[in-house]
Amino acid sequence: MNSKTATRQRGFSLIELMVGMLVSMLCLLAIMAAFAVYEGKKRTTTSGNDAQQNGSYALYTLERQLRTAGSSIVQGYNYGLWGCPVTAYTTTPAGKVQTLPAQSALPSPFTSSGWPLTTRLVPVLIASGGSNPDVIGVVGGNSALQVFKIAIAGTPTTSSVAVGNSLGIMTGDYLLGTLSDGTCALAHLTSSSTATQVSGTTLTLDADNSPATGLQKATYLFDAGAAPMFTLFGIDASTNSLVSYDLLQRPVNGQAAAVTPIADGIVLMKALYGIQTSTGISWVQPTGTYSIDTLTASSSAASSAMGKIKAIRIAIVAQSRLPERSSDYTNNNPIVLFQDLDSTLQYTFTPNTQYRYQVYDTTIPVRNALVSTHY
């Protein structure tokens, strides 16, 4: 083998290898730094989008429910329906139970809200949480045709009631009856295919869904439709999510009723009442005269205050899912809700550093309450 061939076959020297490794490491560090910046921007964008989407969906869900609040009960404003305490029984997987008034404490997060066990037929009520999230209760129905009071034509029994006009009353509907003692009862038309649900003016009731003496004392009936709302909305602090709870505890797919998550990433919900005054709408906090305890008391003052509620204003604070790096973002500025209103109506929220927040604020008229005087 000659010297030229040996020279061509010679490899890299140790110094050359070390220089090559150093250059590679520098390039790798530069790539990783650029990748870290990219991932930080991506995380920020994604987290911000999550907060926007969750906040938008949470507000949409609440607005959809609140815009139908009071439907099917507004026609009973002048007939003892509005504001009356309601009694209801529901068949659950554990058997027939009385669900209204509630017989035990409400589940978390509603158990600490101060929400009363007795439910009154008011379109919208708010339980103030102070510095914690508020709880909003919505009551309404979805009757197909019947919008006026239904006169009772005979003596009701435990399983049926005779009415003068059954127009619009469908199989599976819930009926609200105003009772002679000033309370209300909820009954359910039987869904059994072996029985006649509506025969002339006689309505056959499901005995498992009405109290034994409920509609026997009824003076008027009101059709609440097949899926009336008796729903609470609140914030579960343990999961940072907007949740709802059906006060009637109706089973879902054969499973017992439970608190239902609606939207993730929601850390705060505050609400105000829009009260009808001689000059228009005035905003008040759900405290004092409009606290949940005062509004649900059996008094003429509570009835008068309920009738003045014409709108509700809601503010929701959505939080990003992932924390930011301290080098990228540190949020120490307090968030003030209802900034355009008087300072006595505002709420201040202290954010968690390294998270991004989005505030959603909207005013929702309680449309059915606006026409209550016509009934």
If you had to describe this structure to a student in words, what would you say it looks like?
The chain has a domain at 51-142 and 227-374. It contains 5 helices and 20 strands. It has helices at 3-8, 14-66, 292-295, 300-307, 367-370; strands spanning 86-92, 95-100, 124-127, 135-140, 150-151, 160-162, 174-179, 184-188, 198-199, 202-204, 218-225, 229-236, 241-246, 260-264, 266-277, 280-284, 309-319, 335-337, 347-349, 357-365. The radius of gyration is 30 Å and the shape is elongated. It starts with a helix and ends in a 5-residue tail after the last helix. Mean pLDDT is 82; it is low at 191-200.
Report the sheet-strand fraction: 25-35%
- Rg from alpha-carbon coordinates: 30 Å
* Low-pLDDT segments: 191-200
Structural class label: alpha+beta
Q: Work out the helicity level.
A: 10-25%
Give the biggest sheet: 6 strands, mixed
Shape: elongated
Q: What does the average pLDDT come to?
A: 82
Number of strands: 20
- Compressed to H and E, one letter per element, the order equals HHEEEEEEEEEEEEEEEEHHEEEEH
Give, in spatial order, the strands making up the sheet with the most strands: 2-1-8-7-11-5
SSE arrangement:
Elements: H1 3-8, H2 14-66, E1 86-92, E2 95-100, E3 124-127, E4 135-140, E5 150-151, E6 160-162, E7 174-179, E8 184-188, E9 198-199, E10 202-204, E11 218-225, E12 229-236, E13 241-246, E14 260-264, E15 266-277, E16 280-284, H3 292-295, H4 300-307, E17 309-319, E18 335-337, E19 347-349, E20 357-365, H5 367-370
Parallel strand pairs: 1-8
Antiparallel strand pairs: 1-2, 3-4, 4-12, 5-11, 6-10, 7-8, 7-11, 9-10, 12-13, 13-14, 15-16, 15-17, 17-20, 18-19
